[in-house]
Amino acid sequence: MAAASVGTLLMPGMPAQGAVPRSQRLHIGAQTNIWGVPIKSYNDLLRDIGILARLGYQGFETGLGSVSSLTGKASELRRDFASRHVQFVSAHAFAVFYDPDTVANELAGLERAAAYTAQMGASHLIVSASKPVPRPGGKLDLAAVRAKAEALNRLGAAVKRNGLKLCYHNHELEFRDKPTEESYLLKETDPNLVWLCLDVGHCYGLVDPAAFTAEHFRRIAIFHLRDETRAITGEIVDTEPGYGRINLKGIVAPLLNSNWEGWLEVEEAPFYPKPVPDPEAVLKIWRAYLRKLTNV
């Protein structure tokens, strides 16, 4: 999308013709990684989403391990989440995807996860790669990428049958090559079956997350938001929103007055898999920042 087009989207008083109000399109959520991975008990999960509701968050995402042992209580979980007025956005799962020896079992397990998380009230299933695509001689294995894209298409169809949207979550390696693995996945996955969960922290420094969003925001269903900078040593340092180098305003800009609908989720995890010292304080700062940024 050209810069002029983005600017037009942002002009005050000029919402897109027939656009749904922002408050009905832009949903604010949080990943429970901030309390550690996985959440230790179901009571802890209920405590945590109660905090999110009190702070003004509309939804939550959690690791699949936080709910996978509770499949026999799916209806109870759905009622508990609804009573706290918080949407279960998604569980986050992992698989290799390109290995022909494991892919069938991986897809079967993820389809089961889609079924029981849908019963718990989830609207999406987020998946990440647990193993990078091979790079023999330093070059991306295109056959493996195509196998991965095909697996994601198959999974997307299965997830859709269960009433959910499949979102693929990136890490750094999807953006390291030129052309990138992410560019191949965008071309070779079906946009009606596979969306993106863009982790802006994992692509920062490799691409401009704001420019990527401007070009591809209609394929993105969920954003994982954080702000960070880099020390002289090259170490990534998390910052409060607006104090780092990630252009959060630029990322959100194309979403504001378009017809985009999806989730803006805070994913602070500087001590992953351990919790941050004061999760509530961090999430309170982020909620105020996102309210100011989006007016939602």
Write the layout of secondary structure elements.
Elements: H1 3-10, H2 22-25, E1 26-31, H3 42-55, E2 59-63, H4 74-83, E3 87-95, H5 103-119, E4 124-129, H6 142-161, E5 165-169, H7 181-188, E6 194-199, H8 200-203, H9 209-216, E7 220-225, E8 227-230, E9 236-239, H10 248-256, E10 262-266, H11 279-294
Parallel strand pairs: 1-2, 1-10, 2-3, 3-4, 4-5, 5-6, 6-7, 7-10
Antiparallel strand pairs: 8-9
CATH topology label: TIM Barrel
CATH architecture: Alpha-Beta Barrel
Principal-axis shape equals globular
**How many structural units, i.e. domains?**
1
> What is the string of SSEs from the N terminus onward?
HHEHEHEHEHEHEHHEEEHEH
Give a description of the structure.
This protein has helices at residues 3-10, 22-25, 42-55, 74-83, 103-119, 142-161, 181-188, 200-203, 209-216, 248-256, 279-294, and strands at residues 26-31, 59-63, 87-95, 124-129, 165-169, 194-199, 220-225, 227-230, 236-239, 262-266. It is globular and about 50 Å long. The chain has a single domain, classed as TIM Barrel (Alpha-Beta Barrel). An 8-stranded parallel beta barrel has the order 1-2-3-4-5-6-7-10, surrounded by 6 helices. The chain has a two-stranded antiparallel sheet with strand order 8-9. The chain has 296 residues and is of the alpha/beta class. Mean pLDDT is 93; it is low at 1-16. 40% of the residues lie in helices and 19% in strands. Helix 5 (103-119) links the parallel strand 3 (87-95) and strand 4.
